Structure formats: structure tokens, C-alpha cells
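TL;DR need C-alpha cells for one chain.
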Amino acid sequence: MHATISKWGNSLAIRLPRHVAEEARLAEGACVALEVKDGSIRVTPTRKRYRLADLLDGEPPRTEGNKEIDWGTSQGDETW
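>> reply
TL;DR here they are.
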């Protein structure tokens, strides 16, 4: 498959055909890593890494009403 490089502002761009983007699981706004090795360009999808503190931002702090619940004694082969 061939693609044409186009000018996009001060940069260059390659338009990915739909079936290529779907096969690589890429969508608009996806983050990718670019690597150049021996004159070849490798594009690899990346996943955003989240920090627990960022995920919990805005959640109310635990209160006395959120204590552990006693579910009773073990049933079967459970270990506590």
C-alpha cells in the first residue's frame, strides 16, 4: 500500500486509510509513539497512563460511614 505525504501547516502528514486505522485500533485523537530507525518510521499506538491520585480527584474522602463490612465467617475454602 502507498500513501502520499501532504503539507499540514508547517508539518507533514500522512492520511491513513480507514481499514488501516481500524486494524491498528486508531481513532481521531489517539496517542502514538514515533520512532525512526535506519530511515524507516514506526508508528506505535500508546495508552495514556493514569495516576491513582488523578483518577480519585474530586471524589469525596472516606468517612466513618464507609468502614469495612463484616460479611461473617468464611464459607468453603476462603482464607482471610
